[in-house]
Input
Amino acid sequence: MSKSTHQPPLVVRLHSEYFSSAIWFVASDIDFETASLSPELERDIEAWNDLIYEHNDAVWDGKSPRPSRDAAVLAAREAARIATGITLAKRLATELGAHFTIQFDDAKTERERWHHSPAPASNPAAEAAFLALEAEEEAIRRRARRL
Output
């Protein structure tokens, strides 16, 4: 019986938070220069990530929740931010291709959504960048196992 060479997809996490990047991979946030994503996707992820600051500033004063007269407006904005995040996760999955699965974290509802593209990467440079990061991490894991 032959040993399977199938590898599960690598997980890239997309979430809006107070970090330098909304993209996490191998336990670290990944800057756009390293990620080699298309300029359009970079721009859209950055704009989407900025929405968390706007939302939190509207509902939180740093110590406690702010009362809001516009709860329906804030809820609609948050729903739109989540819908945009889902769309961005799908676009990221398409750019990175079949080696990767995108985990979209919605901090508001604490719900995870997973997106995977079975097709080859639409952005081979981004795919190569993430595969190189994984190779570096694997080399670190191998060295640690030898200790």
Notes: The chain has one domain: 10-146.
